[in-house]
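Crash report, auto-generated. Payload:
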Amino acid sequence: MRTTAFTDIFTLFQRSLSSVSGESHLAAHLSDAAEIVASHPALIEKEIVVPPNFGQHQQWGAILPLLSSKGITIREAGSPASVADAPAGLSGAELAIAETGSVLLAENSLEARVVSMLTLAHFVLVSESKLVPKLDDAAAVLQVLTNAGSDQRHYISFVTGPSRTADIERTLTIGVQGPKVLCVLLVSDEEEVKP
Amino acid sequence: MTSNYEIKSPQQALSDETANRTHEHETFDERLEEALTDDNMHRALERFAPSWRASRLTVFASEESDYGSDYSFASMRSALHEAKDYAIEHQDELIAQFKSQAEAAGAIIYEARTAEAANRYIYELCRRKGIDLVVKSKTMVSEETELNAYLEARGITPVETDLGEWVAQLSHERPSHMVMPIIHKTRQQVGGILTETLGREISRENVAEQVAVIRVEHRKSFLNAGLGVSGANALVAESGTVMMLTNEGNGRLVTSLPHVHIVMAGYDKLIGTFAEAMTQLRLLARSATAQHITSYTTFITGPATPDKEMHIVLVDNGRSEMRADPHFKEALRCIRCAACANICPSYQQVGGHAFGYIYSGAIGLVVTPFHHGLDADAGPQSLCVSCNACETVCPVEIPLPNLILDVRSRVVEAKGLPWLKKVIFAVMARPRLFDSAVRFFSIAQMPVTRGGKFIRPRNLSMFDKLPGVRPIANLARWRSLPAFASKPLRDRVKTSGSAANQLDPGKAGITVCCFAGCMIDRLFPEMGEAAIRVLEACGVRVTFPQKENCCGLIALNSGDRAHCLGMARQTIVMLERSLAESKADYIVGATTSCVVTLTQDYIRLFDDLQQQGWKRRAQALAEKVMDFASFVDHVLLANGKKLPISKTEGEQIVVTYHDSCQSINCLGLHSEARHIIQDVLGLELREMPQSDVCCGFGGATSIEHGDVSERIMNNKLNTAESTGATVLVTDNPGCLMHLRGGVDASGRRMRVLHLAQLIAEQLE
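Recovered output after restart:
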């Protein structure tokens, strides 16, 4: 069961993200997330790019077989050129921030990062438990992630909605160098109960 | 660097031409002339300013309503002010911390004392590594050091990947705005530039198509460049992290794809902690574009991938000199949001190529002498109308208006005043000479004014041959000039039996000393008489010191601190004596500009000159000084005094109110006049849009830059007229002179009154 507090924060997150043309969904289980991704208009070509070794990801790896079972081809990201303008990409985020509608990506590998930079539609998985109310909460996480040591994350981004510009006559245009679609899936941490 | 992409052809072709053809190599006069004839830019800026103001207020209000008063604009900017001050005070310590953390994470740090050193370091790196294509995401510091021209001259091609910056680069221009580089260009112009650059037809109307074309063009550069150069919005000391904000996504590509990444950043970008950086984030995007946050906020700690090289070039280029200056070090707090440009009435008329050098807006006027020399600022700083609006929106509370005046006085010290100003201020600083001169002109002007209230060009035509007449006629073309009063206020109070002569303590038990200001005394004595009538009608005893002289504001605003100093001392001595003689409880000023000078400017002036004795006297005096509207509202009405209003059944007048810059931005007045007009006088008040935007007077600016001043004034008169009001009211004679002159010259029918006159008209 989701608490009222969570629902309030999610409402705020959704409001912030939709105000910058981003999509967000709650997914009770990973299978729901797979369904939302697979049926999204951006998946028209039935292919999605994921970071290398995403299948081994402890939390998110299990989504790949679910997507495959829906007829989606999974492609692991390689060089930037090979990912450029791929119709869809999927990766995981460390945090979601309600105040701004941002997700926090922390990827040291370039191949993983280009999924969020060069694909046309980017799907992001985040645990519900990682949704925080404010930027101040994110500051504490940044401190931990940038701590010197072998786990140090060198490249962290708050991604807030799709890429945008208003440089020409202040006309808002979505999708300049980065994705034109950003879709965040907040996945419940509860174990999926098999029927 | 060979590839399947023919990426270099268009950009290389253009960059060969680009070198040394940038805007700032034109003189200020040329840039200003271009700006004043650029209708596209003018239209774009006129549309942008009001919408930015409104969205900015909304986006700050929503943060406060979601998260409480700790997240109000006022609270957040005070927090960021403190954080940035800490970083400036502890720069050595924080730099050491930043360096050790960043180096531990694998970054290479180079400290560049000068622009040349920074450019040379980057060029040498390119040369060593055989790099000939550089992609850049927006960095104002690289504009400051003119990195592009430096690299191009040495055979290296820099490509700006921020969409607007690229279009500016292709047009051989500088960005005209720090956040929206090509706000001065239309979609048709952008389409034309792209068509010419790419050698194929690109839509002149469809912005989405233009953006798509740019995406494809830049994709090639990203994949082929050997070096990415980015800026930084903050350097977080606690972790050695570079924080960078972009919307388009180009910043992440520039910092990720090429094998070498160079960050260029001024020392002023230092901040202690991530928590403080979050406050900066909250303020930056909201102030810049009224967004809650930009699309991408990136935190880079050491090379982005193990096989990459990351260099951080810390640029001084004048920042140490700023830091050593007790006033200008405050400008190091700047986070480059450009709010001070967005709110600026002069910027709105001329854009960033004229209103600044490489850095534009109010902050540009302040920092340019340190980065590019005083000469580069001599022209741009003269466009400031001293409206103080910039300070009200600055997210780090930089006292921009005062710093601009400091720059102005440095320009005057270096170049001297124009001879006419020199003569005028020298006369004004000598009370008896000033008095005689004004009395002489009040008679000598008769053939021109023919007893009327204005000097109009047509009345001057028969004296065309006399020296100095043509410039005056030119000034009066769009704004009739006021005639000197045949009898100044100081004479009128003597003979009317009013003021000064009433020795009985007033019925209200309050005595005030009236500080009229020279404009009221010499040009508009009827305003002063009205103010005195209103005060006396409330039972206040009013005294008028016959030795009143100019407070020195006009000299200060022109950068002539020496004459201002003399007039400040005279005024303090004169008012101290008057207070002692008349036992007055308050000094009431009917000119809010002078009130600001008496209560704020003097203290800063003496503090600056380390004249502590005079500073204390100025502070003591300041406690007694109050502006007319505040005095009536907060002292008289709030304490139960009644204005004896006549309730005649006449034609009801409709009023609109202009908030004078000094009244609203320096004294914080807003409700006082509105309360009096609506609740006490019972008149209909129709608010004009942008009532708090400058009328364009700006003291000497309206003389030096008549065309700029005229445009700002016309906006004000148009908005005032759009309300359908018949009377335009304000409480500052500078605005009144300007707006009355504009109404007269344009044949409008609106009456322009001082608040005191409006009240006096309604008295029994």
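Post-recovery validation: Chain A has a mean pLDDT of 93.
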